[in-house]
Amino acid sequence: MTDTNEKAAPQEGAISDFGIDTTSRSTTEALKDYVAKVRGGDLGSLPALLGLLVLVLFFATQSDAFLTLANVANLFQQGAGIVIIAMGLVFVLLLGEIDLSAGTASGVAASMMALHYVRGGNMMLGMGDTVFYIFLVVIALAIVAAVLMRIWAGAVLAAGAAAIMLLGVPPNAWVEMLLAVCIGCAIGCLTGFLVSRVGIPSFVVTLALFLMWGGVILKLIGQGGTLPIRNDEVLFKVANGNLSTSLSWALFIVAAGGYTAVVLSRHFSRLRKGLVAQPTSLVLIKVAAVVVLAAAGTYLLTLNRAPNPTIVIEGVPYVVPIVLVLLTVGTTVLDRTKYGRHVYAVGGNAEAARRAGVNVPKIRMSVFVICSTVAAVGSIVLASKVGSVAPSSGGGNTLLFAVGAAVIGGTSLFGGKGRLRDAVIGGAVIAIIENGLGLLKQEAAVVSIVTGLVLLLAASVDALSRKRAAVS
Amino acid sequence: MSEPILELRGINKSFGPVHVLHDIDFSVRPGEVTALVGDNGAGKSTLVKCIAGIHGTDSGEVLFEDQPVNIHGPRDAAALGIEVVYQDLALCDNLDIVQNMFLGRERGKAGLLDEADMEQAARKTLASLSVRTVKSVRTPVSSLSGGQRQTVAIAKSVLWDSKVVLLDEPTAALGVAQTRQVLDLVRRLAEQGLGVVLISHNMNDVFEVADRIACLYLGRLAAELPAKDVTHGQVVELITAGRSGDLGIARPEAATI
Q: Which residue windows are transmembrane per the record (chain A) (predicted)?
């Protein structure tokens, strides 16, 4: 390129050099680009989707019960808890950090919720004086940590936990769920502060907290005890109830209509402004597919699926709108806000983000706050599914399944790469393995081995695609 | 010769017992490329980081457009219109070109991003710099070549109506053709009226684009001269010995008399 050429070219001409941006591509070109992208190592959630398809086909041929309506609805309810915890974890994983304590932290939140319900709102009586005061001190510390880092939402929610504990609000399902979320938030403030301000590696901090919160749950519930919550209609219905038929269709209209409106308005506004855009036909096909699938799903779930003719079970499970709301809010935050952009930037190159003026410690702390808060929501669903909270709540495989769900879906443990829908897809894979092998009367050993193998496969795909991307 | 836009007076900086910068006086003029040269460890990068607000200074004054200013962080420097393109690029591999160019200063209302606005602005900036090697502004940085990355990093610095751009060894890791592109870009920045500081080890690059040459020797400013008044050899002597004939730091015996 010579100087004369540059000077001769008017500015408009220079802009059109980004021709690939300014004109929309044809469908074949778009497909070609996609294939090139996949070959280049950017797989996204493609392997997980393929895996999902293979698993569904496999179990559908092996078990008659697998594709029955009752089982599919059951799958949603079984998988939702893990999926929600995994969505929170995606934020932490995006920074290349890990939160091993999300499981037991969510267990603490669930225990507090159940304790509030069982003890009639008197937390002091429920926890014993010493534990009660220690909890208040810990929450106060969490508030101080959040204020120091200027994470006001975290401080407010943590203060909410203290307020609910101190005020002795009479038992009410909504207050109890709020308490669980507030407790989760307070725990996240502490974890995040220790990682980002004190500077302890997240692995160590959350390993220590994983053990600690496990002990706290045991202390709150007592050895061998359980706190039943199935007698409260609202708490029990979170994971076991269904929307009425009309509300199911209302959900379909809001969700599918909202999706269509957002995708199409964005697409045509990009076209109008001459920005890089998918071909219209492809966008329309995508939207139509989603709407048709959602309509079919809604229709099938509003059919009576009770195995027993004397009762009626129909409607979309409550967990579906819960997951959808979290997914929509979370995806908007990650993709459309400054905060989300900064999360990706810190995960990609923390030093570059710092030099660009991003408050890296604050971002680092905030993801732990989000993770624990969302995990608390997940624990509400998990507790509701079982109908009680036991000392083992949130322990065992809960956290590892959630991390597994995020990774299987395509979230990278190296940070900077991943989306919330990965957690949903990965969570579906894990739920299907557990459910399908259960239907095939396989023992727990086989379930663990298969889940482990799938996770290993997902991690290998991530590592290999990274290698490929580095080579190309 | 125009008035300096950025002027440093008597800057000192120590890291613990190591005195890295001694009474540095340095100025940047709009529309000119000032090359900052010196051997490894002479303090070039430290000086740039002090200007950018990454490091604080121990003493000395910074004048920006004849006003004394205090730069306490990257944001302060950016607010004044001082941009730095670092040796290690400081781009996020997982973000695309637009996202990188607007990192830390995203446009939009109430926390929501205005992608369309940013994309158009990024494209306009790249076009105004006659950057044509980048196919799409939505390409992830991870798939760009070294020269393209450098181009993006430099374009990022001019997006902000910035007045001073500091380039830390922009051509160090580049091939011949890519070096060519980046040097053209550097010249174009000066033509647009920016004050450009170019740190480089490569004398050919320096003589090709620089209007003035400032030479650091062991943390002291040995000389600051118009590029046309010195020869290649003199600059090398200034870099390696701190003086060349009458130029540079006075001989110790001369100083004692």
A: 43-60, 72-94, 100-118, 130-153, 173-195, 202-222, 242-262, 283-303, 315-334, 365-386, 398-416, 423-440, 446-464
